[in-house]
Design goal:
With 377 residues, this protein is an alpha/beta fold. It has helices at residues 15-18, 23-28, 30-42, 62-81, 117-128, 140-148, 167-182, 187-208, 217-225, 239-253, 269-272, 276-279, 297-311, 326-348, 356-373; strands spanning 55-59, 88-92, 105-111, 132-137, 153-155, 229-235, 258-262, 282-286, 316-317. The strands form two sheets. It has a five-stranded parallel beta sheet with strand order 2-1-3-4-5, sandwiched between helices. Strands 7-6-8-9 form a four-stranded parallel beta sheet, with helices on both faces.
Length: 377
C-alpha cells in the first residue's frame, strides 16, 4: 500500500495552514450555490422558440461537463417522481458540434472561465447546424461570442475560486433551464423538490463538516482511502456523482481514481480485481443505490459487489445515503465525495486548491491555439 502522511482530521487548528486558499469554504457553500444558480437561470428571458426542445446538449469540459451529467440524472429522477417525461440530455466533451446538434435541439455552451476551447469551438459549429444556443459563463471569449450572435447568457461568478468549486451553481442553473424549457409541467414540482433536497443536504452536511468529530462518514472514508487508488462504483442515477468523486479526488487530493458502473461491472471488471499485486493498492467505494428503499435488483448488485470484494480481500466501503428522494440522494452523494476528496488532500499533506499539472497543460493548449490562429488570446 502507498504510504500517506498522517493528520488528525478532528483537530481543526491546522486546517487554515493546510488549506490556505479555502477550498473547504467552497465545499461548505455547495447547498447555497445550487439555489443561487437556480435563481439566476430563472431571471433569464428566453425567446419563445427555445421552449419545447426534445434534446439538450451540454458542451463543456471538466466540472462544467459534470454539471451537465448530474443535471441529466437529476432531471430523470425529478420526472420519475413527477410522472413526467424528461428530454434526452447528452454531454459533449469534444471539439465542434455534437452529431445530434440541429433544429429542435438546445446546445448549452458551458465554461466558467469562458476560455475552454472545446466549448468555444461548438458555438459556430452548432449555430451552422440550426441549433438553439445558450451560453453559461463568467465572461471571456465565450461571453464575447454570445454577444456577437445575440445569444442568451447566464452569468457565472467570476471570482472566488476555481471552476470546479462552482459546479453546484452551474447545476442549479441547468436544472432550472431544463425544467422551464423542456418539462414545464414539472417545473413547479421541481422547484419544491429542489428546495426540499437542499434542506436534506444541509442536514447531511452537518455530519460531513470539519466540526463534526464523531461518526463523520467523509472523514472515515478519507482515512480508509489514504494510500490507495479509489475505485468508485455506482449505478444509473448516481453515475454522474461517481464521476465527480473521481475528478475531485484527482484535483483536490492529487490521487488517481477510476469509476465502474453496475450492472456492467459484473460482466467484466470484477475479474480484474483477481490480480493480487495490483488489488492491494486499491480501495472500493460502493455509491448507491440511487433510489431510497430499493430492495430490488439494483440493491442486490451492490450486495453482490460487496461480497465479491470481501472474498478477494479488497477493501470495500458502502456509505449510507439517507436522502428520501432520488434527487436528494444524488446531491448528497456529490457533496460527500467533495468532502472525502478534501479530507484526503489533508491526509496526503497536499494543498487541495492548486492544480499545477493541469494549469501547465492548459497553458500549452492555449499557446498552441494562439500559434494556429496567428495571435494570442
Amino acid at each position: 500500500m502507498i504510504q500517506s502522511n498522517t493528520i488528525d482530521l478532528d483537530d481543526l487548528s491546522p486546517y487554515d495552514t493546510a488549506d490556505p486558499a479555502g477550498m473547504g469554504r467552497h465545499i461548505a457553500a455547495f447547498p447555497e450555490r445550487i439555489l443561487k444558480g437556480w435563481e439566476a437561470a430563472g431571471e433569464l428571458a428566453l425567446p419563445g422558440g427555445y421552449r419545447g426542445v426534445t434534446r439538450v446538449l451540454v458542451q463543456g469540459m471538466g466540472g462544467s461537463a459534470i454539471a451537465g451529467d448530474i443535471a441529466g440524472e437529476a432531471l430523470d429522477g425529478l420526472t420519475m417522481d413527477a410522472s413526467g417525461a424528461a428530454p434526452r440530455v447528452d454531454v459533449h466533451r469534444d471539439y465542434g458540434a455534437h452529431p445530434a446538434a440541429g433544429p429542435g435541439t438546445l446546445v448549452i455552451a458551458l465554461s466558467h472561465s469562458g476560455r475552454t476551447e472545446e466549448a468555444l469551438s461548438g458555438v459556430e459549429a452548432s449555430l451552422e447546424r440550426g441549433a438553439r444556443l445558450i451560453a453559461m459563463t463568467g465572461g471571456g471569449p465565450l461571453a464575447r461570442a454570445a454577444a456577437r450572435h445575440d445569444l442568451p447568457v447566464i452569468g457565472m461568478p467570476r471570482t472566488g475560486g476555481p471552476p470546479r468549486a462552482f459546479l453546484p451553481y452551474a447545476l442549479g442553473a441547468l436544472l432550472r433551464l431544463l425544467c422551464d424549457l423542456c418539462v414545464p409541467s414539472a417545473a413547479a414540482f421541481a422547484g419544491a423538490a429542489l428546495q426540499s433536497a437542499v434542506e436534506e443536504l444541509r442536514q447531511a452536511q452537518a455530519d460531513f463538516a470539519p466540526s463534526c468529530r464523531r461518526s463523520n462518514p467523509a472523514k472515515e472514508l478519507a482515512r480508509a482511502l489514504a494510500g490507495r487508488v479509489p475505485v468508485i462504483v455506482s449505478s444509473r442515477g448516481l453515475v454522474s456523482a461517481a464521476r465527480r468523486w473521481k475528478t475531485q479526488i484527482n484535483e483536490n487530493a492529487k490521487t488517481p481514481a477510476w469509476t465502474e458502473e453496475l450492472p456492467e461491472m459484473h460482466h467484466n471488471a470484477v475479474v480484474g480485481f483477481e490480480q493480487p499485486r495490483l488489488r492491494e493498492n486499491l480501495s472500493v467505494v460502493l455509491l448507491g443505490p440511487p433510489a431510497p428503499d430499493d430492495d430490488g435488483p439494483a440493491r442486490e448488485r451492490y450486495v453482490i459487489s460487496r461480497d465479491v470484494f470481501s472474498r478477494l480481500n479488497t477493501p470495500a466501503h458502502w456509505p449510507t445515503l439517507r436522502g428520501g428522494t432520488r434527487l436528494s440522494r444524488l446531491l448528497e452523494a456529490v457533496l460527500l465525495g467533495d468532502y472525502v476528496s478534501y479530507y484526503l488532500a489533508l491526509v496526503n499533506g497536499v494543498d487541495p486548491m492548486p492544480t499545477e499539472t493541469l494549469d501547465r497543460v492548459k497553458d500549452r493548449i492555449r499557446g498552441a491555439a494562439a500559434v494556429v490562429d496567428g495571435h494570442a488570446e
